[in-house]
Amino acid sequence: MQHQIRRCGGVAFAALRRVGHFPAAAAAAAATPAAWRRLTSPRLYSTADTSQQLPANLVQIMEQRMKLIEQRSAYLQEQINQPAASPEEYSRANKEFHKLESTMELIKELQSKQKEIEGLKSLVTNSVEEKDMREMAAEELLEAIEEEKQLQHGLFRTLLPKDEADERDCILEVRAGTGGEEASLFAMDIFKMYEKYSQKNGWKFDVLDLMESVSKGYKEASGTISGPGAYGKLKFESGVHRVQRVPVTEKSGRVHTSAVSVAVLPQADEVDVQLRNEDLRIDTYRSGGSGGQSVNTTDSAVRITHVPTGTVVAIQDERSQHQNKAKALKVLRARLYEMERHRLHADRSKLRSEQIGSGDRSERIRTYNFPQGRVTDHRVGITHHSIEDVMEGESLDVFIDALLLQEEMDAIASFTS
């Protein structure tokens, strides 16, 4: 793999460092001294390096958060055991309580280890004890301190600000943009790229709906991706993907620029989004044109309009009206859930929006240049020179890992603010 850095940032350097490309990273960093100082600063901490001692300021903040989590866990336990709690209150409290369980286990384990360390320190400094006993305690103390450090690192990772939807399944939506038939062909390529990437990760990929173009590309395509951490890995794929290549219909060999928009939405359940019948307008019609995989003569296609928000979802992929309705409701819940998440996170840090981007589907995030065989992600400034590997879903992690690393760096900055 060859990489080229277009602009230097912590994420670009760290991503290259992972795969052993020090020279390219160093050259890019040297051109931007401020970035180089930030990267080599002893205060820069990454959860990937557990050999480091956790900085004292982070330990202090972490201890404050631990107390808050213990208090919150105790409160939720009371709510769960409250006979007067409604089913919805119980469900929400139980869901949050189980989210905190693994963190609470780490907190208890760390506290137990710290008590062990205090006891060993007492043995080491106790002059009454025999020399052999003190030496044995000193050895055990060193081991316990190392174990404490590992526990602190693990706990710190769980306490970093994170997207609660990261572990969810997701819905992928791809739409052809500017570029006519060529855009629809590229939309098909992108949709299949994510299908191959899903298979590579052991995730389940199911097509929700396809609307074909005249050239058998995809005007629109949607699917569900189910697997551990699917949304967390793919969430930064939302945006405009631009392609530069010679269309199959171009006889003069001119390179055209086309674009498709990608949206990745976390799947929502009924607890997250409650749909009231009075808020829904459901229309049925016949699937037709070159869009339905199952064009037929019955009113199987379903269009659902969420009246309060004006959100419309149409599905015509299945022959069964019932199946299309179920799929449409799944997509509708995901869109409404994302709208609410966007509203709640509108004030996210300026650092994140500058370095990663808003994730808005109107933002150009990546360019696929076929004549030169390269793919460039404009948010992290990384170019990968094997476009075939990317389209096969093999090298997408070059960009995904860099974006996730940048997200972690932002989370650490947010943790300390």
Automatic annotation (TrEMBL):
Belongs to the prokaryotic/mitochondrial release factor family. One of its GO terms (molecular function) is translation release factor activity, codon specific. Residues 286-302 form the Prokaryotic-type class I peptide chain release factors domain. It comes from Brachypodium distachyon. This is Prokaryotic-type class I peptide chain release factors domain-containing protein. Residues 100-148 form a coiled coil. Keywords: Coiled coil, Methylation, Protein biosynthesis. PANTHER family: LD18447P (PTHR43804). It comes from the Eukaryota. Pfam families: PCRF, RF-1. One of its GO terms (cellular component) is cytoplasm.
